[in-house]
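Record 1 of the preview.
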Amino acid sequence: MPEPLVSVVIPLFNKEDYIEETLASVVRQTYTRIELIIIDDASSDYSVDKAKNFLEKHNGRFSNVIIESRANTGQAGARNDGINLAKGDFVAFLDADDIWHSQKIELQVGFLKENPKVDLVFCNYLMMGENNSRIRAIRLVPIGKKVEM
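->
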């Protein structure tokens, strides 16, 4: 049985300065069965061009790549459009100006496989400033704890 497909949904609106680094963090994932869905929310800069150029250099890295341009519906609307296009067993959201730890998907898929009754996982994060300076760590749940509802 193949590993689960993970659909990574990226809402994109005027993030030309960040989108390549964001996509690079998806390329660096240790988990490789990834479908990439970018929903352009009517960007007026070069965000889409930069994304397409970056992805051409990494052709074949993803199971599937979809880039859709839509009328400006906001981040939630773009995410919903991405969900509707997703073919994956799991959906992961990534903002166009964020980067992921290289093992993020691997660890979360592993947790979901070990805990089939779990519907949602999330993690702590770091807020970074210019020149990769650490602003603060955000801890959503005490380390090592599971929250069940």
